[in-house]
Amino acid sequence: MLLFRPLFVLLVVFLTLLFAPINSHNESGEWSCESSESGTQIAAEFRPGVVTLDGHPDDWKDIGGFDFSLLPALDPHEDDAYKGGKMTVKALHDGKDVFFLLQVDGEYAYSKGNSNKCPSVALMFQIGENATYHNMGGCKESPGSCTNKNCRGHEVDIMHFSIGTAIPGRLYGGNLVDAGTGTDRFGHLVDVYSWNPHCRYLDGLGPSGTNNTAQNDWKGAWWHSSLNVHSGFVDEDSPYASNGKKGTYYFEFSRPLRTMDWFQQDAQFKIGDTSKFSAAFWYPVDGKPWHGSGHYTVSCDWLPLNFISGGSTLTGSGTATTSSWDAAVAFSLLLSVVAFCLSVFVGYRVSMRRDTPYTEMSHL
Ligand SMILES: *[C@@H]1O[C@H](CO)[C@@H](O)[C@H](O)[C@H]1NC(C)=O
Ligand SMILES: *[C@@H]1O[C@H](CO)[C@@H](O)[C@H](O)[C@H]1NC(C)=O
Ligand SMILES: CC(=O)N[C@H]1CO[C@H](CO)[C@@H](O)[C@@H]1O
């Protein structure tokens, strides 16, 4: 089965490329998204005990990835794509948590304490059935008027990691000190929900106040290929490597499939189901700090994310292997039936031979 997985991934990638149409651009300034990378399905396979959440990509090498051009989120035009390279997205689950690896080529840029001069990533998921990718949920209300009632159905779930205060290879996100909301005072890996770009809140906070029942359910770490692996960085080592070095950024995240959210502030994932998802990237191009809306995204609409069940991974993904295995089982079954018949036959012959003299004797 392992042998067939790369082939299968290649086939999926090939089909994806074949069917992915070109992004269109609406000159009038109205939003239009023709592409939506149609046909692309990100698969989160059941692969327990494979990855460690440390920002390092080595343990993901056998997991198939999906490559996306990064286009400006607000005006997706091929000419304005992120020049550094594509974003590779990988996902898997272990039956309890989902794991993501985002991988983007980029010269090392790190400015301690200034997140806008460091790269940054976000994941976004649909929560409400009417939540659009465009306008982060697409609720029509304005900041003063949006509430969980009039924006009902437009909820999206966002994880945002700004690395300006995060040490590479260290774990950030939900922690005991920040319990009660989606914030993270240490590494700024936050759990957010929104109804549109202007009605965006940390989990547990909202226009009507605080509930203090929420939590930051995400954890994550970052790394860059130009960093030297050693026993562990501390804050004083910043900027950890020399700025401008060519390489690849890695961002690794995990979250439980289900969370204890009671207010439509977290997406809930289900094995066997498909969720709607997107990924975004900010980069200080030419050293210039990025601003909030200056991000690139992997697609101009939701991408499907399949949570593949452990059962279907065993029987489904490698058809050829499955059928040859089935053949082996059938053959050994046949052999055992033949052996059984043979033993019955031999036993019968033996007892016949033994019986005959006795019957003959009784006849005598
Ligand atoms: C751009 O959007 C407007 C408004 O939705 C629409 O009328 C127009 O046909 C679109 N143009 C293109 C080239 O898609
Ligand atoms: C989503 O929109 C449809 C059609 O407008 C509506 O019937 C439905 O109630 C909406 N769903 C939610 C959760 O508001
Ligand atoms: C911000 C928020 O979600 N507030 C909610 C806290 O809980 C009460 C009662 O369940 C809700 O009415 C609020 O909307």
Keywords, please?
17 strands, globular, 15-stranded mixed β-sheet, two-stranded antiparallel ribbon, alpha+beta, binds 2-acetamido-2-deoxy-beta-D-glucopyranose, 2 domains, 364 residues, Immunoglobulin-like, 24% strand, disordered C terminus
| Percent of residues in beta strands | 15-25%
Total domain count? 2
Helix coverage percent of residues? 10-25%
Helical run tally: 3
CATH topology of the largest domain: Immunoglobulin-like
N-to-C series of helices and strands: HEEEEEEEEEEEEEEEEEHH
Biggest pleated-sheet summary? 15 strands, mixed
* Overall average residue pLDDT: 85
Low-confidence stretches: 9-28, 315-323, 355-364
> How many distinct beta strands?
17
Structural class: alpha+beta
Between the first and last Cα atoms, what is the distance in angstroms? 68 Å
Principal-axis shape equals globular
Attached small molecules: 2-acetamido-2-deoxy-beta-D-glucopyranose
Alpha carbon gyration radius: 28 Å
Q: Would you state the CATH class of the largest domain?
A: Mainly Beta
Q: Could you say what the CATH architecture of the largest domain is?
A: Sandwich
Transmembrane segments: 327-348
InterPro entries: Cyt-c552/DMSO_Rdtase_haem-bd (IPR019020)
GO molecular function: heme binding; metal ion binding
Signal peptide: 1-24
Write a brief caption for the model:
18% of the residues lie in helices and 24% in strands.
